[in-house]
Amino acid sequence: MLRLALTLALSVAIAAPALSQQRPQGGARPATPTAKPAEPAAPAPAPELPPPPYEKELLRLAEILGSLAFLRGLCTAADAPEWPRRMQTLVDAEGVTPARKERLAGAYNRGYRAFALTYRVCTPSAHEATTRYLAEGETLSRTLAGRYGG
Questions:
Q1: Distance (Å, rounded) from C-alpha 135 to C-alpha 18?
Q2: What are phi and psi of 49, to 5 degrees?
Q3: What pLDDT score does 87 carry?
Q4: CB 94 within 8 A of CB 58
Q5: Phi, psi of 30, rounded to the nearest 5 degrees
Q6: Residues 40-53: pLDDT tens digits?
């Protein structure tokens, strides 16, 4: 019987510090949570990858596509609908992150707006700008494909 009493006393003595740690000071009972559990946080966006070595040329190409989209539409060229489609193809291929898509779209919009602010009708200088941008875009496309593949 003594053995049982010692065992019981020892187990209470060992458990007492653990119980006292769970109970708040002053003998008060712990408050029961009334707030709803927090919803899981949205996953963090993927970290931005470093830009490829051809980023500058690619952004220039996007700007040229925007300029051509405006100018070819202004001059009612047969290929006018083709330029926004080409830009969409570029974004689909190169816009691997939202930030990258944003940069490409921004460059396209800059090119488009640059001429939208200046030209209201198709003029000889609009035709000349179109010719120059077609040549620069072709050169950039060939350089990018030759140097980086594609």
A1: 80
A2: -75, 150
A3: 96
A4: yes
A5: -65, 145
A6: 776 766 667 788 89
